[in-house]
Each structure stands twice: as C-alpha cells, then as structure tokens.
Amino acid sequence: MQIPRGSLEGTVVVDASRVLAGPYAAQILGDHGADVVKVESFDGDDTRGFGPPFIDGVAPYYLGLNRNKEDLALDLSTPRGIEVLFTLLETADVFIENFKMSTWRKWGIEDLDAITRRLPRLVHCRVSGFGEDGEFGGLPGYDAALQAISGMMSVNGEATADATRVGMPIVDTSTGMHGAMGILLALLERNRSGLGQRLEVTLYDCAISMLHPHVSNVLYGGRAVRTGNGHPNIVPYDLFPTGTVPLFIAVGNDRQFATLCRELGAPAVSADPRYASNGKRVEHRAPLRETLIGMLASHDGVQLFDRLMASGVPCAPVLTVEQTLALKHTTTREMQVELGDYRGAGIPAKLSRTPGTVRLPPPRIGEHSAGVLGRFGFTPAQIAQLFEAKVVK
Predict the structure, then answer these.
(1) Would you call 172 a catalytic residue per the annotation?
(2) What are the φ and ψ backbone dihedral angles of 17, each rounded to 5 degrees?
C-alpha cells in the first residue's frame, strides 16, 4: 500500500539549521509531506551529542527533531560548498537556517536581501536568538537564557521559591512552531504573488508572545506575579492534594465551580459570597484553597478525576511522562509512533484527507548525500568530484 505523502507533497525544503528551533520547524514540514534535505557539517548537528542516553552513539535529543529528512553532509566553509548550497536553493521552495551574520559575510553575503533577489521564489526562514537589530541584535540565544531574559522564568515556579526554568525547551519549540507557521503563510502568499520572501523568527520574540496572560495583565496596569501551580487570573485553577495522587483542578467558570462543590458534597461553598464569582475567588484565593484541600482529603484522586470529568469539571491527576506514554489514549491518538527502530512522538495536527506520516527515520550524517545531489541535477561525475575534494561526505 502506498503511504500518503501529506499536504506538502512536492514542497522541497533545505534545512541548514542546527540544534532545536529550525530542525523542529523542518520536521513539522516533513511530517506533512515535504521533501526535507538536512544539510549538516561533517561533524553533524550538535544535538547528536546531547546525551546520555545514546542509541548507537546518537542522542535521542537529535532523533526527536530530525525524522522525515534526508541528509547531505556538506562543507560550507569552502567556496565550492557554498556553490553546492545555492545550487540546491535554486530549485528549493524553502530554506531554513540559523547562521550568524558574520558567517554569511564570510561567505560573501553582506545583505540577506541578496538571497531573495537571486532566488525570488524562495521562502527563506531565518532563526536566531534576538534578531539582528536592537540592543541585543546578533547575540547568541539558547532556550533557558531566553526564558530568563524574557520574564518567563520569573513567573514560573512556586511563589516563595526562586525563578524556575520550564522543564522543557518551550521557547525553542515555540519558535520552531512559529517558523513552520510563517513558512506556510509565505507559501500560501506565493500562490497569489508568485514571489517568495524572507521571514524571521527569534527566540526572544516568541518567548514574549507566549507570556499570556502576564503581558496583557502588565500592559493594562496589573502585575506579573509568580503563583506556582495556581493561575494569576482564575481560581480554583491549581494543583491540590487528595487522599491518593495530586489532582489539578482547572475550573474555568462559575457553573463548573458549583458542580465541583456539589460533587465534593459541599454545595454551600459555591454560594458563599466570597466565592460567588471568579473575581471574588481570586480575591479570596488562600481561604478557598484551604477549604478545598479539606474537602479533597478523603477522596481517591484517580476516581475523583473520572467523576469530575464526567460532570464537566476539567481536572487531571499528575502523571509521569512514562505513565502518559503508557496510557491507552496516547495510543488511540497515535501520539507514539514507530518506524523500524525509531520511536518518537506522534503528529498532533491530524488532517482528514492528507494526514501527516512518519516515512523516514532520523538520518545518519551524509546518509543520502549522493542521492540528494543527483536529484538536484548533479551528474555522477560531478558527485564523484565533490566526494574526492571532500566538499561532501
């Protein structure tokens, strides 16, 4: 049976980015059918070494970001290597990169608009930490540092503790998502104009864009405060102990709060004037929390989860990653995929007619070099010369 290719079948992507945001954007495109060529140095992407654990010498960190790609090992430090790159870009639809401007200048590109002028149909996605202009323009950026400088770390963690890093590279992954979205926007516009364009996504910009509701609160005269597991604007929206496992209760309106109190055998609590509306509950957050802790103490958290969700009250027990991956629902939603020895997270955007698929495992360095060059028009003799000259590997 032929595997469907997805919505982006026939779209050619050259991914010369490294580490997380750019490769993640390219993987999203590849999951939905694009032909993605990963251009690596002979040493490979840094994330190949981000372990342990290691699988055959390669870190799962790399494996999680680079499926559905073919690999071309190319020495871009040489003029011939740059020529090869631009030959690929002449027929590519999308170019993703995160090179420093000093690197581009070393390669003879003083102005990135020169790429757009030379290749007017190309969608050029540029990923960086801070952008090229402004006070921090051109500085390197890594996820945790951007969590710190953007204010994200200041609102994460317990209210009485130090600022805390979000336990996953959320700025990098958000930047990858915005990169993929920007690429799709540019491709859609190209259908009308016939022209590509350059788009820029920075970790700094994406970090600030994610700070809802804190940015909005501050811009309208409020404060961005650290509330631990609680929500700054919604109560009760917090983690509570039960007689067994911790339960996160996410009440979003007064009806849900009344249902919660009724299910816990204390309907009078929802009628208390201090708790009659969300605004009042936010004002009286501390006493309400203590009241709810007492009401929850005798309940089994998992059983209560089933009962509250059936009644329309959003909540969930705290699970480990291992427990979540073992859930039947994870399997039902196809959020754990396998391809040979490859294991990875599933594809979250599920299209009914052109679904995404996992077709290729993450590649080895230079695994597809000869085949990629042949597909982009290089003759067997030219390919042999490139290998002999150690321009490709």
Answers:
(1) yes
(2) -85, 165
